[in-house]
Amino acid sequence: MAPGGGVCKDVIESHPKTLKYDVATTKTDKSVTRIATGVSGKHGMQSTNGVHELLECPVCSTLMYPPIHQCPNGHTLCSNCKLRVHNCCPTCRLEMGNIRCLALEKVAESLELSCRHQDLGCHDIFPYYSKLKHEQSCRFRPYNCPYAGSECSVTGDIPYLVSHLKDDHNVDMHDGCTFNHRYVKSNPHEVENATWMLTVFNCYGRQFCLHFEAFQLGMAPVYISFLRFMGEDSEAKKFSYSLEVGGYGRKFTWQGVPRSIRDSHRKVRDSQDGLVIPRNMALFFSGGDRQELKLRVSGRIWKEQ
């Protein structure tokens, strides 16, 4: 037994494969290192001395970031897994203590790796400790499905998501930069059920998501309509759009810039960045006995010069 190391009685045998750094490496991660050559390891890091294995946490199998801990026998572990195994080394069952593996942290500083989204088009190379920060905002990272009616976990590039919305969510697809949509609901008082619709427009060779839904704004039931751009925010800012709803000689209008689908549906809705219509006004526009919602929302999309 190594000096100063107590034996742990219980060791957790299974652990969630997550890190607070969120750096789970997939089989498609084409990571490389410029300081070694040879046969590619299972993370795609070319190495002759097993550096890639040294930097892999033995519990969650992801790359380790400081602080990297080691037990008295030298077995290393990431900080999250150190907590999960209750400070007990999963390899030799000695108490981990608070020993930092400074040598391994120094080795990591010398590595330069490719982005994990290399297969999606990112070919930049980054120092080991900068790679994670880049990947969190990489413009080639997959987009989340913009469908707001369920907790859809599908991700992918734009062409894939367009097909996914059409085939799996039965979303209406339209060509053109102008629209005139009619929204009907027999019981407009069911705000809690979040009446909503999504339509995708193909305009200027790009795709836009038109949202319409009911939600509770404080104590007031309202309807909101807004546009999201299927692409990056820098591209979304090249476009503008307008929305209009009305009746009986009155109308509401809105003009704005579409938000990127990088911003979640809920984030855009809660920021009220769109055409917000109080329910009483919506029912007035609907006419009749005010017991049925019949709104017509028109609008257009244009590209700024």
Automatic annotation (TrEMBL):
RING-type domain ranges (all copies): 57-93
UniProt keyword Transferase, yes or no: yes
Function: E3 ubiquitin-protein ligase that mediates ubiquitination and subsequent proteasomal degradation of target proteins. E3 ubiquitin ligases accept ubiquitin from an E2 ubiquitin-conjugating enzyme in the form of a thioester and then directly transfers the ubiquitin to targeted substrates. It probably triggers the ubiquitin-mediated degradation of different substrates. Mediates the proteasomal-dependent degradation of ATG6, a component of the autophagosome complex. Requires TRAF1A/MUSE14 and TRAF1B/MUSE13 to target ATG6 for ubiquitination and subsequent regulation of autophagosome assembly.
Enzyme class: transferase
InterPro entries for this protein: 7-in-absentia-prot_TRAF-dom (IPR018121), E3_ubiquitin-ligase_SINA (IPR052088), Sina-like_RING (IPR049548), TRAF-like (IPR008974), Znf_RING (IPR001841), Znf_RING/FYVE/PHD (IPR013083), Znf_SIAH (IPR013010)
Protein name: RING-type E3 ubiquitin transferase
Keyword Zinc-finger set for record: yes
CDD domains (alphabetical): RING-HC_SIAHs
Subcellular location as annotated: Cytoplasmic vesicle, Autophagosome; Endosome, Multivesicular body
One of the GO BP terms on file: protein ubiquitination
A cellular component term, taken from the record's GO annotations: multivesicular body
Pathway of action: Protein modification; protein ubiquitination
Source organism per UniProt: Artemisia annua
Keywords: Metal-binding, Transferase, Ubl conjugation pathway, Zinc, Zinc-finger
GO molecular function, one term: zinc ion binding
Catalytic activity: S-ubiquitinyl-[E2 ubiquitin-conjugating enzyme]-L-cysteine + [acceptor protein]-L-lysine = [E2 ubiquitin-conjugating enzyme]-L-cysteine + N(6)-ubiquitinyl-[acceptor protein]-L-lysine
SIAH-type domain residues: 110-170
Entry EC no(s): 2.3.2.27
Main location: cytoplasm
Family: Belongs to the SINA (Seven in absentia) family.
